[in-house]
Amino acid sequence: MNTEILGLIAGGLTSIASMPQLIKVIKTKNVEDLSWLMLMILVSGLSLWVWYGIEQQELPIILSNSFAVVVNLSLLICYFVFRNSEK
Amino acid sequence: MNTEILGLIAGGLTSIASMPQLIKVIKTKNVEDLSWLMLMILVSGLSLWVWYGIEQQELPIILSNSFAVVVNLSLLICYFVFRNSEK
């Protein structure tokens, strides 16, 4: 199998699996299960993966990790927005 | 920067960020926030990333995704063990 297609399928699956948490947080506005510290560590790690993908010129890595950065930055924004609205 | 070291740091950060959920589930034995379907999709995607890493001969991808497979398979096992013990 073409490894780029393999990587795109892999990235598609891991991207799909990351969506329910964001959808749930947006729907319920409940952020008490989120840890801003872990989200920051995760976004840092994912950003480094994007950088790694750019250095290696690998499209599946760039695409899937960029998507994950957007999802987890959104969670981080939700955390700070909804945390304050709860009090 | 050496891209392999960059990838290993990226993988280390995303691996650290995946641990708290597993630790929390093991401590609280509460699995109602887990979705077995999403865990299955995630483990499938992560396994394909390991395969991709092997095809591309990239150690950081193989290591970090293998670790993530172990973490999420553990979550899946916890889900089925603790779900039954709750009833």
From TrEMBL, chains A, B:
Alphabetically ordered keywords of this record: Membrane, Transmembrane, Transmembrane helix
InterPro entries per the UniProt record, alphabetical: SemiSWEET, SWEET_rpt
Record carries keyword Transmembrane: yes
Transmembrane segments: 35-54, 60-82
A Pfam family that the UniProt record links to this protein: MtN3_slv
Gene3D superfamilies: 1.20.1280.290
Coiled-coil residue windows: none
NCBIfam families linked: SemiSWEET_2
The protein's name in its UniProt record: SemiSWEET transporter
Species name: Chryseobacterium zhengzhouense
Lineage: Bacteria, Pseudomonadati, Bacteroidota, Flavobacteriia, Flavobacteriales
